[in-house]
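# step 3/5: fold
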Amino acid sequence: MKLWRRGPEPKTTDSAATEEDHDKKVDTNEQPLLSHLTALRRGLLRSVAVLVALFLPVFAFSNAIYEFVATPLMAHLSGEMIATDVASPFLTPLKLSVFAALYLAMRYILFEAWRFVAPGLYLREKRFAVPLLASSIFLFYLGTLFAYFIVFPLVFRFFALTTPSGVAWMTDISAYLNFVVKLFFAFGISFEIPVATFLIVAAGLTTPKTLSRARPYVFVGCFVFAMLLTPPDVISQLLLAVPCWVLYEVGILFSKLAKERPEEEAPTP
């Protein structure tokens, strides 16, 4: 969004002239605040329209979707799930439909965000932004799939094995939905760590060396983060904390690319 923008940066690549022309257009194409607000409003309306369009068919199959979401638990549950609230049999599938529509619409919402900021980006910034946007979407969905196919079966199996003899292990459908949605978003957001570390290094806020020195604090922070977002059992906390730690290390490796790139583009004597 071109409300303000720094001057053109020096170019040394073969496509320097084309890139400089593009950047000059970005610098001179100033738009008033009202124009940006109008574009933001259009993007939000389109996102809401897509969300509603996805919600309607999703709600029609909400019961089947809930059965799919509950499969990891039902594989270890001796009985049936219960509804302790009168309206839960209706409100829970409704809430699930909203989350499912948001989950499916995430790619389009991020595309609208990209469409909004792209006109104010330099060509070099766009080369960074497109892979980062694609990586963010991929990692978010990868995190949710990791939670569903790896974390849930292990956690529920652990709960089933530790249930005392003579205790009927049953859960409310609304409580279960809140549980899985929280873990879905916890793992989805956690898998964005490599992108986050790359961005803060690319923005000049820190360096890979500083991130490496912060390893002990990040290690503890991963377990604190897992403790706050997962059930109070060792299995689920480890299944979130360890991937966070591994992803942080991956982020450090990729952040070195952000640090090395300016050196590659430095002017030649």
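# step 4/5: annotate
The CA atoms of residues 51 and 105 lie 6 Å apart.
# step 5/5: archive (pending)
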